[in-house]
UniProtKB/TrEMBL annotation:
UniProt repeat feature Lumazine-binding, residue ranges: 1-99, 100-197
Protein name as it appears in the record: Riboflavin synthase
Pfam family, one: Lum_binding
Swiss-Prot/TrEMBL keywords: Repeat, Riboflavin biosynthesis, Transferase
Amino acid sequence: MFTGIIKGVFNIHRVVGKQDFMTIELKLDEGLCEGLEVGASVAVNGVCLTVTSVDDEGSVASFDVMQETLRATNLSGLQEGDQVNIERAARFGDEIGGHLLSGHVHDTVTVQDIIKSENNTTLVFSFDAGWQDYIQPKGYIALNGASLTVGETVDKGVFCVHLIPETLRQTTFGSIRKGNLVNLEIDSQTQAIVNTVKAYIKGQTFN
């Protein structure tokens, strides 16, 4: 499990691509590498990946990315030098500053617009309208692994989030551009409630 509080932005050290498969290497700082072992879970742009190796110096970690993950996320477009959001798995006793995440990305959304003012930035995203019922104004959402609050649903298939300077500094959103793909994880509680209500209404309709 993860909390959606990004611990930093790190560059892709190396990418090895194969048929429907990819291995990525990340060079992490000392704090994030502490106690990192093979089998540990790390969220890379919000995608829960398993550490497959750690170099002798304990600073470069490798992760394998399978076909379904490549299909459903933005990891397939990563290249050496690209930046990604990183979070280590939550531990018992950690402060939950965001909201609980599984690291199982549902889909990608596209940056439609970037609106900047003196101290705030608004990102506008377009998304598959099939997720519309789960993206609620002021509700939780995770984008590239960052726990955020939905600002407004601007239109069908369009929503926005408002970001403070600290979020821009600590995540890849500081350098995001129009057209970029961003990983989307729907809040699990919202999804469960919506699905339960839908099933109830459907059952009432047929009774």
